Amino acid sequence: MGTSFENYPKSKGLDREQELLKELKGRDALTLEDTESLRTLAHDIQVSAFDPALTLTLCKAYDVSALLEQIKQLAQESNPEHRAQLHHFLDFCVLFARSEHNLTPDLPQSYELEVFAQHGQPTLDNELQMLLHSWPKEETNYLLAMHIEDALESFNLWGTKEGAHSGSPGGASDETIFSSRLLYQSFFLRRELNLYTGHSIAHMLVPLAEGYIGLYIHGQLVQAYPAPNHERYHAQRNEDEMLIAKNDSEYDWIYDSLAIPLPENAHPSLGLRKLQDLWNLYDDCKQDGQPFYFDFSRIPLEALHPTVRADILEHNFKILQEIHAHDSLPLPLSEKTFMEAVFPDGSGTSARCELYRYLSSFSMREKLVREFGDDIASLTLYEQSNFLSFLEEADIESVREVETLVLQHGMDFTRTFLLIGDDVSLQQAFFSFAHEHPERVASVIEDIGALAATIARLKGQLLEIFGSAHSSVAEECTRRLVIRAKETLQACMSGYAENDGVSAVLGDAAIFAFSFRLLRERGELSLATIPESASLSFKSVPSLNLTPEERMDMAALYQKAHSDEDPSYIARLIDANNEVAKSSASTFYLMKHADALIGMIRFDEKRNERGDLIELYAGGFNVDRAYGNGKLGEALFEASFEQMKKRGIPIKAHVRKDSPMVDKYRLWGFVIIGETTSSDESKIPLYELLMAPSQVSSESVSSA
After folding, report:
1. Side-by-side strand order, sheet with 220-226
2. Nearest to 453 by CA among 389, 403, 385, 382
3. Do the Cβ atoms of 119 and 57 come closer than 8 Å?
4. Mean pLDDT of 423-440
5. Which residues lie below 8 Å from residue 83, measured CB to CB, with a gap of 6+?
6. pLDDT at 587 over 70
7. Which residues, in sequence order, are CB contacts of 234 under 8 Å at separation 6+?
8. For a tag on the chain, would you pick the N or C end, based on fewer CB atoms within 10 A?
9. What is the pLDDT of residue 547?
10. Other CB atoms closer than 10 Å to residue 539's CB: what's the count?
């Protein structure tokens, strides 16, 4: 995408093109900016109404032999910038081939060929194809090898591979094959997004990743938009019915004509003959001054030649364009915002963005569908970024190995592999494990794949919960979860903890807890500042004001928090809590997430014989284990104690001697003043603790 991301479609004009040629003429070597201009100019001519032969004039700016020599030299380099230059050049080859084949109906073929010959087309055609065929045979980089293959295929007008449009310009290219498969979906996505500008076939809107769709011009990604929410579906249906109702029934013959199948064993290109029927229909409608809107339900769209199908879709789209000409256009994401989503670690250099542009191009997406069995749109942007990191350096042999395993195990394997990222040693170990233990690898990748999917959707979820002010926490959470996932994967492969540990970091509760903990560690969040969108509430309730539902929720929380304890011990804890709740001398602090009770602590009042309050006792401290790693318990404890300390009364507590919470209590200001045992028959050893005197200030007492 690079510099062109936000500026397409452009309209330069012939003078600007000639000016650019003069600027480039005589250069000793191409820079990255030059190759971007080379690709962009060829692309602009495709988009504009200029004669496609003008694409070829760019090569007059260079000594062709010197240009080809430089391309050969660049092919020996391996850094991202050189690769970006090579991809620009290969794009030019693809567009050159399409211009060569694109004999427009407005110009006689003889004139077209005369123009091409004037620009040295036959020589240039041969030179380019010879260069592509003789590209260094030792070329092993996967991305470049695929692009070279695509450039060569673009010179072939008659394709034989599945999905090729025989007889159509560029019909053998993967770009054309991929776009034809999504034409119908693009038609409806543009309507849902209310995007009616441009040619519907040259400007396509297709899914790009979870939550994103991309606007493509001639197979290149130029804009990204948030995915639409399908609210316009019923309005579209009503609009279609209204337009179809206006059709004159005398034109219904076109449906019968389109439904006639090709003769058995006929070459697919014969399907192009139906174009003449369409053109006859358009002429009749024009002469009669009658519009005609195709009813797709009466047309076997998938059985038609792709070019015929495209013509029908474009005809309907033009009618919709006239109706919605003055509608407000949707706002695309800025290139900066989108690239930050693709490269959340800040690695999105200009050259890497160019490589992502090729990875996300139609031609590459079709190759990945063919070789991996799925499109990159099934991956999140985070996973696409990891995939690109792999392919940037991967040789063909390594990709083929991954490809084989993906076809065996599906997209969960892809997610597991992408989660590994550039950890070469772990990649090798994982490949070995997959080959040596096929009976175990399926269950491992299912769990790790689910974990990878959780990590991938983390950023959007955190932004939704905590707001853009805390956007940087997503990258840190992702990094920590990736580390956790890699550790889990290594343990699974070693046989020590197969399928263990994965569930601990999955689910909304774990993600919320994980991010909440990180924000607290960074001092960015407290219970007092957490936004409403986090769905976290914290309140104090006098014991006699507890609702029956809250009493039941507290009992359930005891069960969750002590799930590894003896059931009889849990029952005694619940009974003791219920007994205290009957008294007016206790206050409960309750923490809820999404209306579910996830934490609690109570404070019981102790009075002397005169009825003076002399002490508070902190008990019943419990946190749902699903939130255990999130410091939510600490936040609950600290917030409730901040309120209770204002009363200026000493606070006591008991903690099991074998509990890791002993150190936490001491950190919060408690000191151990003795030892005792639980009052029931279990006689569990306990520490008796008291809030350190310095923690209950005289200032707090006076203000109470």
Report:
1. 203-209, 212-217, 220-226
2. 382
3. yes
4. 74
5. 77, 141, 143, 144, 351, 355, 392
6. yes
7. none
8. C
9. 92
10. 9
Tell me the C-alpha distance between 355 and 359, whole Å. 6
Cβ-in-10-Å burial (0-12, 13-18, 19+) of 457 comes to middle
pLDDT bucket at 106, cuts 50 / 70 / 90: very low
Dihedral angle sign, alpha carbons of residues 121, 122, 127, 129: positive
Dist CA 490 CA 430 (whole Å) = 8
Average pLDDT over residues 376-382: 84
- What average pLDDT does range 441-470 have in this prediction? 66
- On average, the pLDDT of the chain sits at 75
How many helices (H) does the chain have, and how many strands (E)?
Answer: 28, 10
Query: Roughly what angle, to the nearest 10 degrees, separates helices 14-24 and 32-47?
Result: 160
Does residue 253 contact residue 277 with C-beta atoms inside 8 Å?
no
Of 57-61, 286-290, 353-357, which has the strongest mean pLDDT? Answer: 286-290
The whole-angstrom separation of Cα 232 and Cα 20 is 44
Of 347, 369, 389, 355, the closest CA to residue 147 belongs to 355
- Binning pLDDT at 50, 70 and 90, where does residue 282 land? very high
Find tokens 């000016």 and name the residue: 19
The contacts of residue 239 (CB under 8 Å, 6+ apart) are: 320, 323
Report the alpha-carbon distance of residue 292 to residue 594 in Å, rounded: 53
Residue 130's pLDDT is what?
A: 75
Q: Determine the pLDDT at residue 239.
A: 92
Distance separating alpha carbons of residues 344 and 389, to the nearest angstrom? 13
Q: What is the dihedral of CA 258, 260, 261, 267, to 10 degrees?
A: -70
Give the span between the Cα atoms of 670 and 653, in whole angstroms.
9
Place of tokens 């063919």: 370
Which helix (H) or strand (E) covers residue 274, if one does?
helix 274-288
Q: Which two tokens stand for residue 20?
A: 């650019």
> Could you tell me which of 239, 240, 252 has the C-alpha nearest to residue 290?
252
Structure tokens given for 104: 């427009």
Q: What is the CB neighbour count within 10 angstroms for residue 550? A: 16
Cβ(268)–Cβ(305) under 8 Å?
A: yes
Write a three-state SS string for 188-201.
HHHHHHCCCCCCCC
- The one-character DSSP state at 75 is T
Q: Which of 401-405, 511-515, 662-666 has the highest mean pLDDT?
A: 662-666
Q: Are 419 and 386 in contact (CB under 8 A)?
A: yes
* Burial zone of 206 (CB within 10 Å; 0-12 exposed, 13-18 middle, 19+ buried): buried
Calculate ∠ Cα 8-85-353, nearest 5°.
55
Q: Do the strands 651-656 and 613-623 form a parallel or antiparallel pair, or are they unpaired?
A: parallel
Q: Extract the tokens encoding 376.
A: 């990159």
3-state helix vs strand vs coil in the chain, percent to 5: 60, 10, 30
Rounded to whole angstroms, the Cα distance separating 399 from 391 reads 8
Spell out a b/e string for 281-292, using b for 16 or more CB atoms within 10 Å of the CB, else e: beebbeeeeeeb
Q: What is the pLDDT of residues 40-57, one digit of tens each?
A: 555 554 443 333 333 444
Q: What is the mean pLDDT of residues 202-211?
A: 90
Two tokens, residue 90: 């290969």
- Nearest CA among 47, 64, 382, 55 for reference residue 220: 47
Backbone angles phi, psi at 615, to 5 degrees: -165, 150
d(CA 531, CA 537): 10
For residue 421, give the 3-state DSSP assignment.
coil
